[in-house]
Hints:
The protein is an alpha+beta fold. The chain has helices at about 10-15, 100-105, 120-125, and strands spanning about 20, 25-35, 65-70, 70-80, 85-95, 140-145, 155, 170. Strands 1, 2, 3, 4, 5, 6, 7 and 8 form an eight-stranded antiparallel β-sheet that branches. α2 (about 100-105) crosses α3.
Amino acid sequence: MIDFSTTADAVAPQLLGCALTHAGVTVRLTEVEAYLGAEDAAAHTYRGITARNRAMFGPGGRMYVYLSYGIHRAGNIVCAPEGVGQGCLLRAGEIIDGEEIAWQRRGDVPFHRLAQGPGNLGSALGLDLADNGAPVTGPDFVLHPRAAEPEWVRGPRIGITKNAEAPLRFWIPGDKTVSGRRGRR
């Protein structure tokens, strides 16, 4: 059982290999990034609480769903004690149930790309802004424990400009669903 009241960098590797079910699709998480609140210039919570990021300051084990680049819905799982504002961005995963639904949402893409990248993962899961603040313990989201701890690595985050070199990206090496720049997988 994951203790979501601990810091995002402690929770992130524990999410790898877990499965998240929402809206008819289940994704096995293969890549996540930790965002550390007020001490992390890349975090949505770096400058404090706003209407947009309020869910990130709530209790751990809840979703923070937001609009990325004005078009993609991306999701984080809130971590750390209430009021701290930390979370783990869900970057990539493997569809393990609801594949046909995921393809309807994503279109004609290779299987390993269905939930590769935060926006694509959000689309495959059918994330909606109304999901913001929902618990991952049901009924709308269910986080399933992993069968065993997978091998994992950590390194710099990608797709951001602030605090990008912080080793707060965690992934399962060699998994085809993991996103990333060449040489940085």
